Amino acid sequence: MSSPLSLTILGCHSASPKANAHPTSQVLELRGHIFLIDCGEGTQVRLRKSKVKFSRIKHIFISHLHGDHIFGLVGLISTFGMMKRTEKLHVYGPKGIKELILTQLKITASFTTYPIEFIELSNDESEVVFEDEKVRVSTIPLEHRIYANGYLFQEVNPPRKLNLPLLEDLGVDKVYYGKLQKGSDVEHENKLIKSDDVCFVESPKSYAFCSDTVYRPQIVPLIKDVFLLYHEATFLETEADLCQKTKHSTALQAATIANAANAKHLILGHFSARYNDLTMFVSEAKQVFENVELAETLKRFYFE
Amino acid sequence: MSSPLSLTILGCHSASPKANAHPTSQVLELRGHIFLIDCGEGTQVRLRKSKVKFSRIKHIFISHLHGDHIFGLVGLISTFGMMKRTEKLHVYGPKGIKELILTQLKITASFTTYPIEFIELSNDESEVVFEDEKVRVSTIPLEHRIYANGYLFQEVNPPRKLNLPLLEDLGVDKVYYGKLQKGSDVEHENKLIKSDDVCFVESPKSYAFCSDTVYRPQIVPLIKDVFLLYHEATFLETEADLCQKTKHSTALQAATIANAANAKHLILGHFSARYNDLTMFVSEAKQVFENVELAETLKRFYFE
Questions:
Q1: CB distance from B79 to chain A under 8 Å?
Q2: pTM of the full predicted structure?
Q3: Would you tell me which of A148, A153, A260, B154 could form a disulfide with A142, CB atoms 3.0–4.6 Å apart?
């Protein structure tokens, strides 16, 4: 694998407040980026607990404008201001997010010390919303009670890695390693060592965040071969009727998407408050997809 | 004393988020009323932890529109809707609170199932904002960086209580107790027992909530002889210069107000995040007012 990917869950429960169930928010770390995804109420306190440095957050992606995914954003934005942040913040979310935040900042006299760029979304087709030399982020159109997108984070240009056992076999001096990794060929004991022969590039990592949504097989081509899929599983199959009504998914449906997309790993979240025991979500999902885990507040999933 | 009064602290820290420091919110219970005062982010989760029944909250009083006193309100209002509340909610707060909440409810498609009445305040003089046969609530104009009010909750018509030792001495049959308590005189062994002779009324309880504010002796006449005073003490005297700048008070200033008002009890809160050890707040306040305690998240202060 190329670069490490980590996902820290700040909240993974649906909207009804319980003493120890927090609404959706998570932090993705990929190629040096810290991306915040959704921002339910109380996110900033759990960010503090997670030890993620506030100043490293430059991009915030909001799936949809239901309160359990957005009510913590204005508090975080205000706190950035109290911390005298100067660096620009980029906020991606459905059309309306700018008015939602700016109205609150104005009425609460929470003037920010830094610029905010709102990237408002209204497209029903997938689109690239962020791209640099390391990561590309595109939307995954979902189907919920209001306009909603998931996000696909894809590593691009994964770094070349050295085939260390081969280099040792060839007896190449370590002083050449840097050059070889960067793509230059070198001469060693009168033999040309080609960079491409001693370096390799593993498949790039990717993460798909899909919440909230009804079962939607149309997303499968967009997330084909994804490394890690987070898919909501608000209900179990016993409550499948509620999924259609509230536009949510069951654990089995989430796993069916993971299986069809040939994902490597699946994490389930957005559990309804009606379930005290979540182990059934795993067993239901495992009927069609083995490599599944449950999201858990302040749990960090780390993949080398 | 007449009726019990209890104050449950849901949060008592200033705006900067820390892992275990929550912004202002508290629940006052007086004569069967449950009043919510201020509603910083995450209030609904701490309400759950406090075991206060959401449905018993009918009146919410907001001191001012800074985020650490208001950002939790829209989430609570949305949750009331998810719980299918039907009873009217009364929200008291500075002008602008209605637009703040309604804009969010509209954009987040959080339709409420119940009516909300916003009582918007802009008066610089104290005014009565709520009154029934048991409790009167009036504003306490404060001085902060934006328009702010404290609130004075006063018990009215405290219940008549029976002088039980006297009734036993007189040998009055218990069947007459109800009548006597309600104010009727009764005949007992050919003697007239006057209700007023065997009943008494203790001094009514009252609670003054004063946060956020710079030191403001003008409030003393408004809260004269108050039973319980909660006064902000964001800083210690060593940071008195910050009080003027940020329009906050020191522990000594809060205690000076309590002493001048002849309060029975003082609770300090709204502590700045800069202090890890809060014991200095008590010792500083005790220089001028002995009966002082510190607010603490989820602590319940109970007074018979």
A1: yes
A2: 0.90
A3: A148
